[in-house]
From TrEMBL, chain B:
GO terms for molecular function: heme transmembrane transporter activity. It comes from Pleomorphomonas carboxyditropha. InterPro entries: Cyt_c_biogenesis_CcmB (IPR003544), Cyt_c_CcmB_bac (IPR026031). It is a multi-pass membrane protein. Coiled coil: none annotated. Belongs to the CcmB/CycW/HelB family. This is Heme exporter protein B. Required for the export of heme to the periplasm for the biogenesis of c-type cytochromes. One of its GO terms (cellular component) is plasma membrane. Keywords: Cell inner membrane, Cell membrane, Cytochrome c-type biogenesis, Membrane, Transmembrane, Transmembrane helix, Transport. It is found in: Cell inner membrane. It comes from the Bacteria.
Amino acid sequence: MNQSFPPFRLIVQALDVERGGRRVIEGIDFEIAGGEAVLVTGPNGVGKSTLLRALAGLSRPAGGCVRFLADGVADPDEVGRHIHYLGHRDAVKPALTVHENLAFWQDFLGADGGEPVETALESVGLVDLAALPAAYLSAGQRRRLAVARLVAVRRPLWLLDEPTAALDAASEASLVRLMAAHLEMGGAVIAATHLAIGLAGARSLRLVAGEMA
Amino acid sequence: MPPLAALYVRELRLAVRIGGGAMMGVLFYLIVVTTFPFAIGPDLNLLSRLGPAILWIGALLATLLGLDRLFEADRDDGALDLLVASGRPLELLVIVKVAAHWTATGLPLIIAAPFLSLLLAMPVDVTLATLATLVAGTPALTLLGAIGAGLTVSLRRGGLLLPILVLPFAVPVLIFGVAAATAVAFDPAAFRTPFLLIVALTLMAAAISPIATAAALRNGLD
């Protein structure tokens, strides 16, 4: 993870998202380029998660578009292969060991340029538990295993939904360090949170009742 | 490991570990098939005549048993989001998951069938014919079931809805499977037509199921 990412931009234009027949996100425009961080803030239920899911391509927008522009990207509408989506749920299989869980996502999402599994586990402090079935992990440790995915698989844009949930102060600090290192390499981070994350130079996108303020 | 191979291996690992469904299906198969002789009585001629039908009904029910967890487990822990967002064609992922599910649950049924056929006093040629129809037909059951699993993925307790959705479409497979296997006892030449129809049904299911399942999953994610 030493060389930096080629320049890229994510452009969101007039994005509308509906959920359960109700328009949650309306007319959002923003842009983010490599090296930038955006914190999506706002009260519960305002659509932070919905916005991230729409950016990740998990819910189809009712209007507008999300495009990923970079050199060598043939189809800008195909956002999925450039992002990491870290949702509420950690995608950790209890029946597999910690190592198997991470190794699967690395194999599946593509290992090019990512850290080896052991190094990734070390960066979140789980290397001693590598052989343990993930069923025995605590909520915070499961979260850290999910965070290790960001390190093990190299993707330019991180979409993080409440990334610090269940994390203690030390793990939160190390996550912020990972995010800062990612930004330094020319990556970008969009994080939905209602907590202040100590990330220097982050812009804030505040959602108010479905609109941008 | 290539991405799709990694998914296949993961599915198999999950199936054989604690909480996986690999052995459940084959145990259920054993229970269903061994119950029939008790109900029908010790008439060996009747048992051997009904044999293919019993093996097929058992295989059908055992296949449906494990299918509700095909996508539900991945949805519950968020893995389905990552699979869909990965940018890989969802149709291909469905094919891999179905193939792994068939290996873990369908193949053991076929391996168990010859032993169970002994309990039903089935002649060798009928046993072999039943095996051939099971090999050709059970993939169709899994493929059809995947559509149901995709449709019910967002429902809590969709487990019972799935067989109701899938059974009507699985009935032709059952009909031709049993027809081909029983035909052998009377006229070996009559095996060919129903057997080819099963193969056709499996190929049709293989063509339709990945597309329909992927569409159902995308809709169910919201």
